[in-house]
Design a protein that fits this description.
CATH class of the largest domain: Mainly Alpha
Helix content: 40-55%
Number of helices: 14
Structural class: alpha+beta
CATH architecture of the largest domain: Orthogonal Bundle
Number of strands: 11
Strand content: 15-25%
CATH topology of the largest domain: Trigger factor, domain 2
Order of helices and strands: EEHHEEEHEEEHEHHEHHHHHHHEH
Distance between the termini: 62 Å
Shape: elongated
Radius of gyration: 34 Å
């Protein structure tokens, strides 16, 4: 057997595998001999079927199977030993030309090779947001808590700050939605004015356009689809069933203890500080995700390399459960090219900077997760033996291992970017962050 590689260019190559009769004949004979010994053919005793008959009936199928086994094993070994970084899988080049009546066979495979490139995480400055909970945010959170722990008082007439329960209706759009909303949540001045002074039992006609600051609220309050919610511009009738005002809960020690445990918070100042600490931890998670997304987009944009496009389109065309047309494969490649580019970039970063997750790291991650969960139920000092036993059960679950590995991989990559990427820190309030980062 002989295997050779011919480079077409830096991204494409052809591997030729030559299999001679002596490479497979012993294996084929052994399989056919077993068939002969075990075959049940009418007119012959078991084990006494003539080899010629066995060859005639099974010979070609066994030959094809054994040659393909040798072919796949030798091709895999060659790619591994030559350390070829291939994309997709080798594609048969001359499959239709193979003459299975011959003694010797020559197979050719097209290879798509991974490109050579460098990754520079300092090429472009990326904004790293430090999101703070400002006084306006804290006051709003305190008000929300006081509302949550306050009490509803029934009313007859709508005034500012009230909660109104009723049903929105529009026959043409199929809207029939019973909801409770706060009058202050309505952004449209005309709609808010129409509701002020309305009474229980009244029917108020309102325009949906501009009623809420975010069109996505149209889904929630009118029960329409996501697509219909954008730019919804119809009239709805609103039948008022209840009007309530919410008396705010008192900021006292009883409320503080109910929220955070006995004696943890003893004043409004401490309450705001606790809210600030908890909120900014959550803000950090959001800003980290934003940072990760922005660095990834920047790397894809500024890390330039070519791909074996034609090879990859052919591979997509034939590698699925059902073959695709050339047009469909090209469209699929165009959709997936960006993701493929980042896979190559990320793989290079992980290899060059040792960012792979080890089993010990995975085990420690599982144990820390277990300790955090146990602490929520008052178990603050579990033994190492107990943690090891629970971790072992978790690590025996393939789905859990996959989920934790993905989280750890993301954490490692994020930490690498924080330490090595060219970042410019910007301090913003939460509202400014949402507006600047996502709108």
């Amino acid at each position: 057997m002989n295997i050779t590689k011919k480079e077409i260019d830096s991204l494409n190559a052809v591997v030729t595998v030559e299999i001679a009769k002596e490479d497979y004949s012993a294996k084929v004979h052994k399989v056919l001999d077993n068939y002969r010994k075990n075959a049940n053919i009418p007119g012959f005793r078991k084990g006494h079927v003539p080899m010629g008959m066995v060859k005639k009936q099974y010979g070609t199928a066994v030959l094809v199977e054994e040659v393909n086994k040798i072919l796949q094993d030798s091709l895999h070994k060659f790619l591994t030993e030559e350390k070829l970084d291939v994309l997709g899988n080798p594609l048969p080049k001359n499959e239709a030309e193979i003459d299975w009546t011959s003694d010797d066979f020559t197979f050719q495979f097209d290879l798509g090779l991974a490109p050579e490139f460098d990754v520079d995480v300092t090429k472009k400055a990326i904004t790293s947001y430090k999101v703070i909970a400002d006084e306006a945010f804290l006051n709003n959170q305190v008000k929300t808590i006081r509302k949550q722990y306050g009490k509803l008082v029934s009313k007859d007439t709508v005034a500012k700050g009230d909660e109104i329960t009723g049903s929105f209706k529009n026959a043409e759009k199929g809207i029939d939605k019973r909801i409770t909303l706060e009058l202050d949540h309505i952004a449209g001045k005309t709609q808010a004015k129409a509701l002020l002074g309305a009474k229980v039992g009244d029917e108020v006609v309102l325009k949906t356009k501009g009623m809420f600051a975010d069109d996505h609220d149209n889904q929630k309050y009118f029960g329409v689809s996501h697509d219909e919610a954008h730019g919804l511009d119809v009239e709805v009738s609103f039948n008022i069933e209840e009007i309530n005002t919410r008396e705010l809960g008192e900021l006292n020690q009883e409320l503080f203890d109910k929220l955070f445990g006995e004696g943890v918070v003893t004043s409004e100042k401490e309450l705001k500080q606790k809210i600030k600490e908890d909120a900014e931890k959550q803000f950090e998670q959001q800003s980290d995700q934003k940072l990760l997304n922005d660095v990834v987009e920047s790397l894809i944009e500024h890390t330039k390399f070519d791909l074996p496009d034609q090879f990859l389109q052919r591979w997509i065309q034939v590698s699925g459960e059902k073959p695709m047309t050339e047009e469909a494969a090209k469209a699929e490649y165009e959709r997936s090219e960006k993701g493929l580019r980042y896979q190559l970039i990320e793989g290079k970063l992980r290899a060059e900077h040792n960012l792979q997750v080890t089993f010990d790291e995975l085990k420690d991650y599982a144990k820390n997760m277990i300790k955090a969960q146990m602490a929520q139920f008052g178990q603050t000092n579990p033994s190492e033996e107990e943690l090891d036993n629970i971790a072992a059960r978790i690590l025996s679950n393939e789905e859990e291992v996959k989920r934790m590995s993905e989280q750890l991989n993301t954490n490692k990559l994020l930490q690498f970017f924080k330490e090595n990427a060219k970042l410019k820190t910007k301090e913003v309030t939460y509202d400014a962050f949402i507006k600047e980062a996502y709108e």
